[in-house]
Amino acid sequence: MKTLMLPAQPADLMHLIRRGCGGLLLLLLLVAASGLAPARATAIDEVPPVGEPTTAQAQPRVEVLPRAASLDETAAQSRYSGQKLTLNFQNIDIRALLQVIADFSGFNVVTSDKVSGNVTLRLRDVPWDQALDILLQSKGLDQRREGNVLWVAPRQEIAARERQDSEARAAQEGLEPLRTRSFQLNYAKAADVAQQLGGAGAVGGSAGAAAAARILSPRGSAIAESRTNQLFVTDIHARMEAVRALIAKIDVPVRQVLIEARIVEASDTFSRSLGARLGGAGGRSPSGGAGAGAGFGGSYSATAAGAGGGSFVNLPSPGLGGQPAGVFAVSIFGESAARFLNLEISALEADGKGKVVSSPRVVTADKVKALIEQGTELPYQVSTSSGATSISFRKANLMLEVTPQITPEGNVILEVDVSKDSVGQDTQAGFAIDTKHVKTQVLVENGGTVVIGGIYTQEERETVTKIPFLGDLPGLGALFRAKETRSEKREMLVFITPKTLTDSLLSTR
């Protein structure tokens, strides 16, 4: 620690302050110029060299500390970036202390007439901007920064000034002439942009939220022309620039995703045999991932926490915690495994173990829902209040809703909603509808495949084999016919493969 002796005259002291003491001014003991007694020094006295007499009279001192960064900085100090200093003052005028901080930081300080009073403080090795905040908070003051000028005033005065400025700007906008400008939108809908400019899309559902989110001034307006997708905006010049900047941000091409879906009905043994073949001889780790003995690349992610090791893919999912297996299972394959799945599905149809019910493809934009629906509508009669009857229709179909979201890493988050309705028993009121519904959200790599399974259908079949005429004889006919009852359990598997389209086609206009 280095201690500098300061002169007692304030003019000489300020001259020393401006010199900066070699660039490291970290402690200042300022003596008031209006007849105040010198403040008693609180710094540790420097031991004089041997042979020199010691001085009993206390002198103002400036401590120059090393500016090495502390390793124990708190989270509160992380937002302060000023040079560190040490302050030790007793009953000093707050205006003089603000002048000291201004000279140290290089900022210009403008103080209000209502800033007055004295302060006693001791701050050691803190950033100067943090020291300024502590000083202002202790006196109920606040600051506003414009360029390299700091305006210091009481909080109430600053708040009143800001209200006056806001009212003045509003009054000026009310007198400024209006301008009208047209914007040609290429990708966004003009009607949607017009709602956003007017605050109609604000979150909160209240008039205050809509007014806060409104970009246009109270006098401004936006008209959407749907035929040419143009937007006509009428407002003052300052708001017109804000509208132009917003349109430049939102009127951009949106990335698109190709969604390939295959809906397969297979025997219940197909999914298990498929999992065994994909698993190879290596198995998988508890956290999911390719087994060591797998004969192809790719990755697998287990969606159920706590699923034990085993084969690489296991459809349906095993029971957890003593509970039976769930009604559906979700498995995720990498891009390499997806190619292997195509071969397995083709072999499935060739062996007669199942069939591909539907294989639709659809292209949708990022974060836009895609709907695939296939089935029939069943008519039924509905009685009206007048006693007449009318015909209504009830859907018994297979519906697949997929909403993709492209991540910054290039993967795709899929929100999948699958429902399969089929005709059930015939009742007096009409046909019953058997409903199966699966809804989930998964993260899949680009080109990977997510498989949703576990939707089962139980079929009971009774087959009678007999000899013509003899098998129909009463009593003896049982000797010439055979009855076989077969129970068949089938499973519906949904394979969904998202592929992001390249930006080359989207960037061309």
Total discrete domains: 3
> Based on DSSP secondary structure assignment, what is the total number of beta strands?
21
Derived from helix and strand composition plus strand pairing, the structural class reads alpha+beta
What overall form do the CA principal axes indicate?
Answer: elongated
Query: How large a portion of the residues is in β-strands, by DSSP E?
Result: 35-45%
- Main sheet: strands, sense, barrel: 7 strands, antiparallel
Helical residues, percent: 10-25%
Low-confidence spans: 1-69, 201-210, 279-329
**C-alpha end-to-end distance:** 69 Å
Rg: 40 Å
Brief synopsis:
InterPro entries: GspD/PilQ, NolW-like, NolW-like_sf, Pilus_4_PilQ, Secretin/TonB_short_N, T2SS/T3SS_dom, Type_IV_pilus_biogenesis. The protein is α+β, with helices and mostly antiparallel strands and 509 residues long. The chain has helices spanning 10-19, 94-105, 128-138, 155-175, 190-197, 207-213, 237-250, 268-279, 335-351, 503-507; strands at 2-5, 61-64, 84-93, 108-111, 118-127, 141-146, 149-154, 179-184, 221-225, 230-235, 256-267, 300-302, 329-333, 354-358, 361-365, 370-383, 389-406, 412-427, 430-444, 449-466, 481-500.
